[in-house]
Amino acid sequence: MTRMCNMETFAVLLFVVGATANTFRNFVNGAGSLIGYAEEAPYNITKIHQNFEEREYPALNWVCTTTKASSEVGSHDRAMFLKLFRYVTGQNSERRVMAYVIPATLEYTNGKNGINTYVLCLFIEKAHQAHPPEPIDESVFIENRPPLTIYTRTVGGYVISESQWIDEGARLSGYLQHEGISFSLNHMYWVSYDFTFKFWNRRNEVWFAKEAEK
Ligand SMILES: *[C@@H]1O[C@H](CO)[C@@H](O)[C@H](O)[C@H]1NC(C)=O
Protein backbone atom coordinates (compact mmCIF):
# COMPACT_ATOMS: atom_id res chain seq x y z
CA MET A 1 0.00 0.00 0.00
CA THR A 2 1.43 3.37 -0.99
CA ARG A 3 1.61 5.90 1.76
CA MET A 4 2.28 9.54 1.13
CA CYS A 5 3.88 11.49 3.89
CA ASN A 6 5.02 14.27 1.68
CA MET A 7 2.01 16.54 1.81
CA GLU A 8 0.43 15.14 -1.30
CA THR A 9 -0.68 17.25 -4.19
CA PHE A 10 -2.22 20.38 -2.83
CA ALA A 11 -4.26 21.16 -5.86
CA VAL A 12 -6.07 17.87 -5.61
CA LEU A 13 -6.66 18.33 -1.90
CA LEU A 14 -8.10 21.76 -2.42
CA PHE A 15 -10.81 20.27 -4.54
CA VAL A 16 -11.33 17.37 -2.17
CA VAL A 17 -11.98 19.74 0.71
CA GLY A 18 -14.26 21.77 -1.52
CA ALA A 19 -12.27 24.92 -1.07
CA THR A 20 -13.78 27.95 -2.73
CA ALA A 21 -11.79 30.02 -5.18
CA ASN A 22 -11.48 32.63 -2.47
CA THR A 23 -10.03 30.17 0.03
CA PHE A 24 -7.67 29.04 -2.64
CA ARG A 25 -6.51 32.56 -3.36
CA ASN A 26 -6.09 33.41 0.30
CA PHE A 27 -4.21 30.25 0.89
CA VAL A 28 -1.91 30.75 -2.06
CA ASN A 29 -1.26 34.35 -1.07
CA GLY A 30 -0.67 33.29 2.50
CA ALA A 31 1.68 30.53 1.58
CA GLY A 32 3.50 32.53 -1.09
CA SER A 33 2.89 29.82 -3.62
CA LEU A 34 2.24 26.14 -3.57
CA ILE A 35 5.89 25.34 -4.02
CA GLY A 36 7.75 28.36 -2.70
CA TYR A 37 6.85 28.44 0.97
CA ALA A 38 6.29 31.59 2.94
CA GLU A 39 7.46 30.24 6.24
CA GLU A 40 9.56 27.52 7.75
CA ALA A 41 9.58 26.41 11.38
CA PRO A 42 12.46 28.20 13.12
CA TYR A 43 15.45 26.35 14.53
CA ASN A 44 19.11 26.72 15.40
CA ILE A 45 21.81 24.31 14.36
CA THR A 46 23.64 23.65 17.60
CA LYS A 47 26.27 21.19 16.44
CA ILE A 48 27.47 19.90 13.09
CA HIS A 49 28.80 16.37 12.97
CA GLN A 50 30.30 14.71 9.94
CA ASN A 51 27.14 13.08 8.67
CA PHE A 52 24.39 14.71 10.68
CA GLU A 53 23.56 17.78 12.72
CA GLU A 54 22.02 18.68 16.02
CA ARG A 55 19.21 21.24 16.00
CA GLU A 56 17.11 23.01 18.56
CA TYR A 57 13.52 23.92 17.91
CA PRO A 58 11.98 26.38 20.37
CA ALA A 59 8.68 25.67 22.15
CA LEU A 60 6.00 25.97 19.49
CA ASN A 61 2.34 25.33 18.89
CA TRP A 62 1.65 22.64 16.35
CA VAL A 63 -1.65 21.43 14.97
CA CYS A 64 -1.82 17.65 15.09
CA THR A 65 -3.90 14.57 14.54
CA THR A 66 -3.15 10.99 15.47
CA THR A 67 -3.98 7.45 14.44
CA LYS A 68 -3.03 3.89 15.35
CA ALA A 69 -2.38 1.24 12.72
CA SER A 70 -0.17 -1.72 11.88
CA SER A 71 2.75 -1.19 9.49
CA GLU A 72 0.89 -3.17 6.84
CA VAL A 73 -1.95 -0.68 6.93
CA GLY A 74 0.30 2.35 7.41
CA SER A 75 -0.60 5.67 8.90
CA HIS A 76 -3.26 6.83 6.43
CA ASP A 77 -1.37 10.06 6.50
CA ARG A 78 -3.20 11.29 3.46
CA ALA A 79 -6.41 11.30 5.48
CA MET A 80 -4.57 12.78 8.47
CA PHE A 81 -3.04 15.43 6.32
CA LEU A 82 -6.43 16.36 4.94
CA LYS A 83 -7.70 17.06 8.46
CA LEU A 84 -4.79 19.39 9.19
CA PHE A 85 -5.14 20.97 5.81
CA ARG A 86 -8.77 21.77 6.53
CA TYR A 87 -7.75 23.41 9.79
CA VAL A 88 -5.14 25.54 8.03
CA THR A 89 -7.56 26.54 5.26
CA GLY A 90 -10.29 27.79 7.57
CA GLN A 91 -11.96 24.95 9.48
CA ASN A 92 -11.19 26.57 12.80
CA SER A 93 -12.96 28.66 15.41
CA GLU A 94 -11.98 31.90 13.71
CA ARG A 95 -12.49 30.67 10.15
CA ARG A 96 -8.99 31.81 9.49
CA VAL A 97 -6.99 30.82 6.44
CA MET A 98 -3.42 30.45 7.59
CA ALA A 99 -0.15 30.07 5.75
CA TYR A 100 1.16 26.59 5.32
CA VAL A 101 4.39 26.25 7.27
CA ILE A 102 6.93 23.60 6.46
CA PRO A 103 7.78 20.95 7.43
CA ALA A 104 5.13 18.34 8.19
CA THR A 105 6.32 15.92 10.88
CA LEU A 106 4.97 12.42 11.27
CA GLU A 107 5.94 10.99 14.64
CA TYR A 108 6.17 7.23 14.47
CA THR A 109 6.10 5.03 17.56
CA ASN A 110 6.34 1.31 17.02
CA GLY A 111 3.92 -0.53 19.30
CA LYS A 112 4.87 -3.82 20.94
CA ASN A 113 1.60 -5.39 19.84
CA GLY A 114 2.30 -4.57 16.18
CA ILE A 115 0.11 -1.49 16.30
CA ASN A 116 2.01 1.74 15.68
CA THR A 117 1.05 5.22 16.76
CA TYR A 118 1.38 8.01 14.22
CA VAL A 119 1.06 11.69 15.06
CA LEU A 120 1.07 14.06 12.11
CA CYS A 121 1.70 17.72 12.92
CA LEU A 122 2.14 20.99 11.11
CA PHE A 123 3.73 24.05 12.63
CA ILE A 124 1.37 26.95 12.98
CA GLU A 125 2.43 30.12 11.23
CA LYS A 126 4.19 32.78 13.27
CA ALA A 127 1.25 35.19 13.12
CA HIS A 128 -0.93 32.64 14.96
CA GLN A 129 1.67 30.91 17.11
CA ALA A 130 0.68 32.65 20.33
CA HIS A 131 -3.09 32.20 19.96
CA PRO A 132 -3.90 29.51 17.45
CA PRO A 133 -7.60 29.24 16.59
CA GLU A 134 -9.37 26.14 17.95
CA PRO A 135 -9.84 23.25 15.54
CA ILE A 136 -13.42 22.34 14.70
CA ASP A 137 -12.71 18.68 13.86
CA GLU A 138 -12.58 16.85 17.21
CA SER A 139 -9.75 14.62 16.05
CA VAL A 140 -7.52 17.65 15.43
CA PHE A 141 -5.74 19.24 18.37
CA ILE A 142 -3.26 21.97 19.18
CA GLU A 143 -0.15 20.77 20.90
CA ASN A 144 2.28 23.04 22.64
CA ARG A 145 5.52 21.21 22.25
CA PRO A 146 8.37 22.01 24.61
CA PRO A 147 11.75 22.86 23.08
CA LEU A 148 12.96 19.95 21.01
CA THR A 149 16.56 18.98 20.33
CA ILE A 150 16.98 16.57 17.47
CA TYR A 151 19.59 14.77 15.41
CA THR A 152 19.02 14.70 11.70
CA ARG A 153 20.45 14.82 8.22
CA THR A 154 18.75 15.94 5.02
CA VAL A 155 18.25 13.54 2.14
CA GLY A 156 16.89 14.27 -1.32
CA GLY A 157 14.71 12.28 -3.63
CA TYR A 158 11.40 10.71 -2.83
CA VAL A 159 11.08 9.24 0.65
CA ILE A 160 7.49 8.14 0.75
CA SER A 161 6.91 4.60 1.90
CA GLU A 162 7.17 3.46 5.50
CA SER A 163 10.04 1.13 4.61
CA GLN A 164 11.97 4.00 2.98
CA TRP A 165 11.61 6.06 6.15
CA ILE A 166 12.71 3.17 8.32
CA ASP A 167 15.71 2.56 6.03
CA GLU A 168 16.73 6.21 6.34
CA GLY A 169 16.21 5.98 10.11
CA ALA A 170 18.57 3.02 10.19
CA ARG A 171 21.22 4.90 8.18
CA LEU A 172 21.03 7.97 10.40
CA SER A 173 21.07 5.76 13.47
CA GLY A 174 24.26 4.15 12.13
CA TYR A 175 25.96 7.57 11.89
CA LEU A 176 24.80 8.43 15.40
CA GLN A 177 26.07 5.15 16.77
CA HIS A 178 29.42 5.88 15.19
CA GLU A 179 29.62 8.89 17.55
CA GLY A 180 28.43 6.89 20.52
CA ILE A 181 24.85 8.10 20.43
CA SER A 182 22.29 5.35 20.32
CA PHE A 183 18.62 5.45 19.45
CA SER A 184 15.91 2.90 19.03
CA LEU A 185 14.26 2.69 15.63
CA ASN A 186 10.96 2.33 17.46
CA HIS A 187 10.51 6.05 17.81
CA MET A 188 11.36 8.78 15.31
CA TYR A 189 9.95 11.61 13.24
CA TRP A 190 9.52 11.43 9.48
CA VAL A 191 9.73 14.94 8.17
CA SER A 192 8.67 16.18 4.73
CA TYR A 193 9.19 19.57 3.14
CA ASP A 194 7.90 19.11 -0.38
CA PHE A 195 4.89 18.25 -2.44
CA THR A 196 4.92 15.21 -4.70
CA PHE A 197 5.03 17.43 -7.77
CA LYS A 198 8.32 19.07 -6.84
CA PHE A 199 10.93 17.01 -8.63
CA TRP A 200 14.25 18.65 -7.78
CA ASN A 201 16.01 19.59 -4.59
CA ARG A 202 13.58 17.66 -2.48
CA ARG A 203 14.17 17.66 1.26
CA ASN A 204 13.33 14.83 3.65
CA GLU A 205 14.59 14.18 7.17
CA VAL A 206 14.35 11.58 9.88
CA TRP A 207 14.57 13.16 13.34
CA PHE A 208 15.64 11.47 16.55
CA ALA A 209 14.66 13.49 19.62
CA LYS A 210 17.60 13.95 21.97
CA GLU A 211 15.68 14.33 25.26
CA ALA A 212 12.81 12.00 24.62
CA GLU A 213 14.96 8.93 24.23
CA LYS A 214 18.39 8.29 25.55
C1 LIG B 1 18.73 30.65 18.34
O1 LIG B 1 19.68 30.95 19.34
C2 LIG B 1 19.64 32.29 19.79
C3 LIG B 1 20.79 32.48 20.76
O2 LIG B 1 20.74 31.55 21.79
C4 LIG B 1 18.30 32.58 20.42
O3 LIG B 1 18.22 33.91 20.85
C5 LIG B 1 17.21 32.32 19.40
O4 LIG B 1 15.95 32.49 19.98
C6 LIG B 1 17.33 30.90 18.87
N1 LIG B 1 16.39 30.72 17.79
C7 LIG B 1 15.59 29.68 17.75
C8 LIG B 1 14.73 29.61 16.56
O5 LIG B 1 15.56 28.81 18.59
Automatic annotation (TrEMBL):
Family annotation (Pfam families): SOUL
Keyword entries, A-Z: Signal
Leader peptide range in chain numbering: 1-21
InterPro entries referenced in this protein's UniProt entry, alphabetically: Reg_factor_effector_dom_sf (IPR011256), SOUL_heme-bd (IPR006917)
UniProt family annotation: Belongs to the HEBP family.
Record protein name field: Uncharacterized protein
Organism: Halocaridina rubra (Hawaiian red shrimp)
